[in-house]
Amino acid sequence: MKIEKPWGYENIIENNGKYVVKELFMKKGNKCSLQYHEYKKETVYVLTGILLYTEGKDIASLSVRTLNANDSVTIEPHIIHRMEALEDCLYLEASTCELHDVVRLEDSYGRV
Q1: How far is CA 88 from CA 27, 40, 41, 65, in A?
Q2: How many domains does the chain fold into?
Q3: How far apart are CA 51 and CA 60, in angstroms?
Q4: CB neighbours of residue 65 within 10 Å
Q5: Residue 75 resides in a domain
Q6: Range of 72's domain?
Q7: Residue 69 sits in a domain of what CATH number?
Q8: Residue 54 vs residues 17, 64, 65, 80, 110: alpha-carbon distances, Å
Q9: What is the pLDDT, as a whole number, of residue 34?
Q10: Residue 54 falls inside a structural domain
């Protein structure tokens, strides 16, 4: 199921009640919300492009690194995070099933 987003799209490949797998495409220069999850744990795996990945336990301790093709990161619940596409980027996300567990702290598209 393909879901259009202001930054690109996500395509749900599998949602079976045990885990969810998504393919995400983020357009160059776009970014998702600065957010965290109460329960959801996710792993992101970059297929193509470069993502700028921000994470931290609180706003004051955010760090930034780049994720290139074949890089991955696992995001635990309560970790603040954001992905920003430095190039058009295609990546996979495998997660627990809490799809609506998103607490947005900042958003470029007015979704806070």
Answers
A1: 5, 26, 25, 17
A2: 1
A3: 21
A4: 11
A5: yes
A6: 2-106
A7: 2.60.120.10
A8: 29, 4, 7, 8, 20
A9: 98
A10: yes
